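Final report, closing paragraph on structural work. Over the funding period we assembled a curated collection of sequence-structure pairs, and we close with a single example.
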Amino acid sequence: MSHHQRRAGPGGSQRSRQLVLVTADDAYIYTLRCAYLAYLLQPRPRRQVPAPAPPQIHRSSTSFHELMRDFSSHTSRGSKGNRFPKGFLPALQPRLEGVVMGREFGAEYKDAAVKRTFGAFYAAFREPRFYEGVAKSRRAEDLVLIFYSSATKELQKVKQDDSWKWLSDRHVALFVRLMYNVLKDKDWIGSYPELASQLATLESKLLQHDQNLAEETRPTSIVMVMGPPAPLSYNVNDMPLVKIVARIFGVSLQTCQQDINTNKSVWTEKAALMDMKAYSNKLSLGNTGRTLRSEDFDTDEAWEAWRKLETPALSQIMLAIVQSNPSELVKTTSGPSPITTRPQSLQQSSAYPYHDLSRSSTSSDAPSSMYGYDHPVDMGNFDVSSPVADDILDTPYTYIPPDPRAYFRHVVEKCLSYDLQDPDALPMDVPGADPTVLLSKGSLDILSECCTRWRIPQFSSSILFLDVVRKFYQDQDIDLVTLDTAWLYAKGATDFDWRTWTIADQNLYRQILLSIHDSLLRDLYDLLQHAFDPRAKPVGRVMYILNQHIYEDPLFTSTGLESYIEQLKEGLRNRAFEVLGEIVSELPQDKNELDPFHLVELTQKIIKLAEKVNKRFKEPIMGSVDPMMIFVEVVFPEYAAVARDVVLGIMQAYQEKNQEVEIEDGFDLYRELSEIRQIYGDLFPKNKFPIHLEDFLADFVWRWIRNTDAKVIGWVDEAIKQDDFIIRIRQEQGREPIDDERHTMSVVDIFRSLNQTVDYIKKLEWKDDVQHGKFMTALAKTLGSGISRYCEVLEKLFTFEMDRQIPEQEVAASQTRQQRWVAMARDAWSNKDKIEPFQFAPESCTKLNNIEFALQQLDKLEHTVDVDGVAATLARHTPPVTQQRKKSSNYVFTIKIVEAEDLKAMDINGFSDPYVVLGDEYQKRLAKTRVIYSNLNPRWEETVDITTQGQIWLTATVWDWDTVGDHDCVGRTSIKLDPSNFGDFLPKEYWLDLDTQGRLLLRVSMEGERDDIQFYFGRAFRNLKRTERDMTRQITDKLSAYIHHCLSRSALKSVLSKGYSISAVSSLFSRTGLIAVAVVPLTDYFNENFAILNQTLTSAALTLVMSKLWKEVLVTIEGLLVPTLSDKPSQQKQLSPQETETVFKWLRLMFDFFHAVDEHTGEATGVPIDVLKSPKYHELQSLNFFYFESTDNLIRTSERMANASAARREQARQKSIEKNNPTSTSFGGFLGVPGAKRTKSVLMSRNLGTMRRAKEEKRREAQAEPNDDMILRILRMRPEAASYLKDRNRQKERLAAAAAAEAIVRQSMSSGGGRMGTMVPGGPSRR
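Its predicted structure, as stored:
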């Protein structure tokens, strides 16, 4: 193959040359020779002298065409010939326009006739057909011929004699010169050497008489011509490059003058010509050792490419030397091949000129060539290929040093050193200067001259230049910017294709890369040691040079980067530790002066520093070194440990001074340290942050919670104090308020404060879920106490307003006892009906609206806190029940006052107005029920919670409410509430005999007051619901008296006392007579009160009041039909069929009234149908099936239903055992079986959702499992069933005892205990 590799690597078989030690004097002498030679070869000025009378010129057109034939035929085989470059015509066009417009440089183009001929040619040049044809053929002779034709025509118009003939030659010569200048300005001479040579030859032939092209044509007969060149002065002051050499080497001009004078006879043009001829012959021989050889290149292609360009370059140089003194130099050579040519610029002719690196730095308006001539020289006797004598081949060169590379490197070092130190030299940062210029113009000129004379290839000059730059950088004489600029400078000088370089240049460049790479890595290490400083040193330039100039270079090979990267990381880690120590040292040394604020400032400083480092190093260094990651990995955990120790020290110091650290300071510190931990976690998700911040900062949160707990009652009291509970929208805006506007600011302010309290903790973003759950649990307790306080105060205010006396009552209260009795007797005698609508105060209704709004807000707050999620988190991290050693110290007893039987009559009408007061053993009042008017078997069904820390004796006193005088005691009883008796946490019912007459039914259940967020929210919800229920009941109590009056047995007797038959009774319902007797007054009374309530209550609150009234109607009608449930016979008589029919008609009428279906739209606007059709309503409807059955049938039905219920319970128990579910099944009964499932526990009331679900479940169970309670209540009115009632009672007691025992055993087994001793109070309540 044509390409073969000469060497396998940097240590190939290149023949080593003897190392030449270059001294400064040696380099100076050879550089001075080059500078002096440049002076000898420079163009010399000539003077104008009168020319002799020109001979008559007889120029035929044939002679010009002969010149053109010679121009066309002088083309080397295989060369580009006379074809011009592709971009030549676009470059020529503006030059032609410049001549026509008078803008072209040079006086010879200013003549009017010249402008005219060029203008005529320009017109032909712009013709599309001509332009396209010439552009396609690219033949220079086509342009010259067209110009000659255009010039001839124009000059014949101007000149009437034969002078136009020689003027046409003159103008064509000017055009040829213009073409040559275009090639030179565009750097095309090196690529088209033959074309340039032919153009120069044609120009010289056209100017046979050595005319001055700049001389204007004069109308006088005297013609001025150029005289001989001026003689050389040989004065160094006239030698520009010699002056530069003197400055660079620090030699005086006098010394330079002496050296030149001494060697002037040796340093001649002839010596330079002999050097070039000897060099050219040695190049032809190939292996002389005096030029580059094929062994010096990696490939044959590289060697041939260099030699192909080097040969014509030598010819151009020798031609330039000869033309400098042709009269002398041409005589020294002879040959058969005469060459008459115009030489090219030396800088442009060289294939590898150093000066090409900096063409952009030279002025555009500089002279066209240092060595070019504008006039022809007779070169007919000169032959560049003439042989040289053998003895000359072996003699040393005059101008070329023994080791040109070593000498050139020394000169480059001198030039760069001088320019870096010389303030007058052109620096690279001068505004307007080329940023890639490192050397002054003088240095570039002398280096270019040396390259040309010493035959230094361009790539070699670039590599030697980089080697000098490498030395300067390692000696710290230049910075990174200069290094980068030098690299760009060197790469811009050539194509930088290493495959065309010599082996020596490749090896040197590899050494340069490795050396600079090692230096850059050291500098990078040093720079990164400042990566964490407030003002870091940038590393971008280092990385840019590494990435752009070294790592991407194919000649660069390096190993050991992995170890360097590890060292770099280790250095950054060590520096990070040092920076941490410097930051921590800013803390006050005196622990008494330490404050959390100092830590907050330091934390912010560290975070800001990390952000700065992140901005400085957006990408990892060397692909894997991230200073920000290292800083965070090292500093953040260590600083957190320091912060922990400092905080503990601060807290101890404050404790010694009996002071506490500000809570806000602790919170600020936690936020800042949490940000540090967050950043660390984001960057290192697999690493665990070593410091648990919450352990030593949790105390601040607990202190804040305790402070909040101490303030919450004050918040509630202040909110209530500032609230007048008046809605002013109707008065202020003249419109009815909507439901969302029917509450006042007290409840809004309270829940705003409660929400802010919760949000404050949530915004801390506490990362310890268990601690956060405990915080929320404590807050739930605090919130519950605030809500409980609000309920307590509002209910007291509500009760006070509801019990407020009307003016008539105030007058009656001021009467004496005798006056009051007389007034009562008079009213009774006159049968005066004093039932009037109750005037409910607007502020009372607003309080009920506030409670409803509080329920909604608490439900939202419960979802915000995520109560169930918090409870689940705590449950996962709480030890099992068997591992819990601590017992609850607080117990919550839920006491439901259900009903009373056979109370003593305390009023003269044979009834009592009973209410119950609960108190403890210290006579402290705990609760009070509402008053049930005119009833000896009242049913209250009111619930109260009592919290104790152990056993307590509960006293229940039944009082008779009297409008006049003191209230009378009906009876008293007591019960011991011992937590040990309620270890199963299931409800129990107790019939308690009064000390006078009758008995009282209490339903008691207990659950430990758990430190549980669900428990606290459940208790808060239950407090609100009970307050809402109690307020609603107080409203309904004001109306219930008239319900009892209208739907009483006396009213029933009054309707039937006129002797109506059943059919008559039925027919009366189609008229208003019977309805008006009992129902119409009641509905009117309801409507009047509803109208008052509707002005203030919300729709939901009004519906709730109506639902309670409906329940009161159901209870009243139930009382007409059957007695309460008991094991004793009742004195109440069963109604007759007529009475029963009337009562059920009343029930239907009241159902329709409360449902309130619109007659036109058919839409129900009252109580929802599902509320109306309650279990109580269905029980009353089922009463028709059994009411008039015989006693035997009722007993058989009761037994059948009891057996079916027992079978269902046994089946449920077996399923529970199979599923290993210890949950007790539900047992009904009038004694309240202890095994009954709890549906109203605190946990079942923790939000509105659980409360609704519990209510729906209770409704479904009541409908799914019918019982015989209603039959037993009917049997109480049958004296013959007394024994069955007793037997049934004992049966239920046995079932209840068995169920309770089984429930206790199952719960003990599910708790993991072995004996019953595990069921002690204080265990966890069941959910």
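The mean pLDDT is 78. The longest strand covers residues 891-901. We thank the funder for supporting this effort.
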